[in-house]
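Work package 3, deliverable 3.1, input record:
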Amino acid sequence: MNTPHDFTRVRHWLTDLQDRICTAIAAADGQARFHEDAWQRAPDDPSPLRGGGRTRILRDGAVFEQAGIGFSDVSGEQLPPSATANRPELAGAAWRAIGVSLVFHPRNPYVPTTHANVRHLQAEKDGETVAWWFGGGFDLTPFYPFDDDVHHWHRVARDLCEPYGGQARYDAHKRWCDEYFYLKHRAETRGVGGLFFDDLHTQFEDDFGYLRAVGDGFLDAYLPIVERRRDTPFGEREREFQLYRRGRYVEFNLVYDRGTHFGLQSGGRAESILMSMPPRVRWEYGYTPEAGSDEARLIDYLTPRDWL
Amino acid sequence: MNTPHDFTRVRHWLTDLQDRICTAIAAADGQARFHEDAWQRAPDDPSPLRGGGRTRILRDGAVFEQAGIGFSDVSGEQLPPSATANRPELAGAAWRAIGVSLVFHPRNPYVPTTHANVRHLQAEKDGETVAWWFGGGFDLTPFYPFDDDVHHWHRVARDLCEPYGGQARYDAHKRWCDEYFYLKHRAETRGVGGLFFDDLHTQFEDDFGYLRAVGDGFLDAYLPIVERRRDTPFGEREREFQLYRRGRYVEFNLVYDRGTHFGLQSGGRAESILMSMPPRVRWEYGYTPEAGSDEARLIDYLTPRDWL
């Protein structure tokens, strides 16, 4: 079982992670800076949620059209049914969740969109911690994919799993990612995947170590791709394709994403949850890329594949 | 109970309604025309849905940035649990649904977005019709609202209810509309409402008469507003506000709309269902209109109100 001290350690690591990612992303951007909204639920807020967070957004940068990264520490009086379906003994327990979540929307269509999340949850009954678990992962959504980038992304994911079960861990969480980020109505994955896990509770130090490896590994996975593609020339055509594909991102997040649904339905802070929405998007009825075009290549990357 | 002949009459009225609305909207636009995709499920399609439809889209018009109107006639082997929660006797019944659904996204931000739908459903067991019902309505989503427009809209709604229960019918279906088109996470209605109803099955001729009144009334309600506002001058500021507010439309349709969810989850034709998506949209973290501005006026219209 974990202790209040453990929870504080995770919280400290999360806020520090948010700081480090902001510093690195602002440096990579070179033009815009993050602005922070620190928020806190009022004690008389009608929502049953308590807690607060710090939402940070960088906008209109040289590299990032929008980069949002939020830390939150919220608690509720009762775990929702979706969270206790597999663990009936937790029904009715109070909960506390801390996490960092980010979505970056680059300007250049050759730079992929990305998402990462690391979170820690605790369930409490009568003031005692009765369960804890970790969840998280990171995934990549290119518009014009390059095999080198996808290989690099999955190589970092595979390597960080090494001390935590190695290939078997990577295989399991890579598959989970492919399954989770799937748009059934389009018969497409959201992107080329990465890692996804939930409900991880084997041994606290091991699991927290893996969470740190995922959180710390994110920049190693993403920044080299940004550096490689940020100056690729593009025009109206590539921009329009990017806006169109961002529509799929919206469809996934609003139709399927359990975190988004849980957040919105439980009275979470809508602006913080929906900072994942792209700044500009378009839909076009019946669009299909011309056969053989650069845009037509993408669809081949939206079926799960072994990348290593 | 209705008969196969009744079903055919409704179907005929629906396809004719689609034709008439297309003619009127193309005439109002004056520049662009509707293009039709007639589609039909192949007998070996892996989805359990059968049937087809005709999806019509007008794009890049003088008045309408996009106007989509679809007729569909689809059937399935089993009513979904959501459709039989209140009627356990229908569990497991086969079903057939015919309907017309439209969403128009005007170019000028002073012209409201609108949605209308009229539908007829039948449940069958052992080849016998065991239940039928009607559903539908229309609702208006202004960006820069005018009281005159909203009064006119609701006046048409009220008047068409006259032979079908009068004020009581209008009150009930107006309230249903306000409740249905509600974004809980924003604490806003989608727009200024109109009429919404489902599961209507009192007496077939009466109910079909009301459905016709709603479908035929739509153009009477909408076109005068289009004519009044189509030439209002606007600039970048109004356009940006329109794109921003379209984000709310996307949020409603993808997070809450039962028709959209049912369609996507049951293997419906994604392009036809998602023709409701605006052609261009934007999100902006933390945006609130300046106090006293024209944009700040809108929020007062997004709480249910008696308009007549």
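The two ends of chain B are 36 Å apart (CA to CA).
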